[in-house]
Amino acid sequence: MRNRNKTKAQLMNELAEARQRIAELEASDAERKRAEEALRDFLDNASDLIQSVAPDGHFLYVNRRWRETLGYAEEEIAGLSLFDIIHPESLAHCHEVFQRVIAGENVDRVEAKFVTKDGRTIVVEGSANCRLEGGKPVATRGLFRDITDRKRAEEALRESEERLKTLVENAPEAIFLVDAGGKFLDGNRKAEELIGCSRGEFIGRNFAEVVVLDKKYVAKARARLKASSQGQTTGPGEYELVRKDGSRAVVEVNAIPVEREGKVEIIGIVRDITDRKQMEAAVKSERDKLQSLMSGLAYAQLGIDMVGMDYKILFQNETLTERFGDLTGKLCYEQYMNRPEPCDVCPMIRALRSGKVETAEITGSDGKLYEIISAPLPSPDGTFDKAVEVIMDITERKRAEEALRESEEKLRRMFEST
C-alpha cells in the first residue's frame, strides 16, 4: 500500500539507488576477489614455506614454495596431516609446540625436521601462531624457511673445528696462542706439559709471568714478539726455559702472526729439543774422541778410511790424504791399487758378507805392500753396507822379515857345513 502512495518520481529514485547499491556491491566483490588473488599470488611467490593448519592437524593451506620443497601436488594437500610430514626425531617436540600454539601462544622460533614425499629429510626454522574466534582455535599460521644447506654447512664446520681441535690438542709440539702483548689466550696439552702448569694457570697471563727464560734469551724473546706483533713470521729460534718445578728445557720456537677481528694474534709452535741437544752434545763428544783417535793413528802413520759396498771411498784420514790425495767419492781399487776392477782378495767385501773383521795384504799403486783390516759397520736395519778399514804400510816390516829370514837361512847353512 505504501508503494501505491509513492509517486512515480520517488519510485524511480529508489530504483536508481538500488541499482547503484548493486553496482557498489559488485565492485566491492570484484575488489575483494582482486585482493584475494593478489594475496594468493604474494603467498605463492614467497620464498618461505607458508602453511595454515586446522586444530585437528590437517592442512588448510600451503603455498607453492611449501609444495615444491616437500614435493606434493596441490590436490594432495587436503589429505595430509601436519604430523605426516614431521620427522620421527622432531615428532614429540612439534606436538608440544603445536599444543602451545593452538592454546594461543605465539612461538617466535621453532626448528624441526620435515620429511619430503620422496623420503628426504629437510630442516626448517620458523614461527607459528593461531587465529582464535571466541577464544577457540580456528587455524594456525606457520612461516618456515628451509635451512637444510645451512645446517649441513654448520655441521661440516663443527666437524672441521672438532678435527682441528683434536689435531692441535694431540700435536707432538706445544702450541700457544698469545696476543700482540704476549698474553696467553690458549694452549694445548703439550703446552701444559712443557711449562709445567695447567691452562687455567697460564691463560690470561703474560708469558713473562709464566715462562722463566734464561737471562741470555730474554732480549731475544722480546724482539721476536715485537716482530711477530707487527706481522712478521719468526723462527726457528732456540731458547732455554726453566719449568715450574725448576727443571730446564731447550726449546725451538716458530711464531706465526694471524689477524682476527682486526687484531694480531700469534700462534707459537714450540718443540722441546732437550733430548736432541743432549744427543748432539753426546755425538760431538764421541766425534771429538774419534777425531783424537784418528789424529793419534795418523801420527803413527796408520791410514784409516771408510768404504761403501759400491767400493766408493766415503772417508779417509790425514795419512791417506797426504799419501794418495783426496779420494772421497772415488773407487778404492782404481785409486789405491791402480786396478780396473775390484781386488780378488778384497777384505771389505768379505767383511760385509761375513759380518766379521777380515784382513788382506795387497800391493798398492805406489808399489808398497799394505795390510788392510776391514771391520763391517751395521746400518739401522741390521745389514752391512760399509766398512771401516785400517791400512798399514808393511813394506819395511816385510823387508825386515825377509832379511831376517835370509840371515837365519845363511846361519843355518853355516852350521850345517861345519
Share of helix, binned: 40-55%
**N-to-C SSE series?**
HHEEHHEEEHEEHHHEHEEEHEEHHHEEEH
Strands, count: 16
The end-to-end span amounts to 197 Å
Radius of gyration: 48 Å
What percentage of amino acids are in beta strands? 25-35%
Report low-confidence residues grouped into runs of 5 or more: none
Description:
This protein is of the alpha+beta class. Helix content is 44%, strand content 29%. The chain contains 14 helices and 16 strands. It has helices at residues 2-5, 8-44, 64-70, 88-102, 148-169, 189-195, 199-202, 207-210, 215-229, 274-299, 318-324, 332-335, 347-354, 395-417; strands at 49-53, 59-62, 107-115, 121-133, 136-146, 174-179, 184-187, 212-213, 234-242, 248-260, 263-272, 303-308, 313-316, 358-363, 369-378, 384-393. The strands form three sheets. A six-stranded antiparallel sheet has the order 7-6-11-10-9-8, sandwiched between helices. Strands 2-1-5-4-3 form a five-stranded antiparallel sheet. The longest helix has 37 residues, at 8-44. The protein is elongated and about 195 Å long.
Keywords:
single chain; 418 residues; alpha+beta; six-stranded antiparallel sheet; five-stranded antiparallel sheet; elongated
Short description:
The protein has 418 residues and is of the alpha+beta class. The chain is built from 14 helices and 16 strands. Strands 7-6-11-10-9-8 form a six-stranded antiparallel sheet, with helices on both faces. Strands 2-1-5-4-3 form a five-stranded antiparallel sheet.
How does the SSE layout of this entry go?
Elements: H1 2-5, H2 8-44, E1 49-53, E2 59-62, H3 64-70, H4 88-102, E3 107-115, E4 121-133, E5 136-146, H5 148-169, E6 174-179, E7 184-187, H6 189-195, H7 199-202, H8 207-210, E8 212-213, H9 215-229, E9 234-242, E10 248-260, E11 263-272, H10 274-299, E12 303-308, E13 313-316, H11 318-324, H12 332-335, H13 347-354, E14 358-363, E15 369-378, E16 384-393, H14 395-417
Antiparallel strand pairs: 1-2, 1-5, 3-4, 4-5, 6-7, 6-11, 8-9, 9-10, 10-11, 12-13, 12-16, 14-15, 15-16
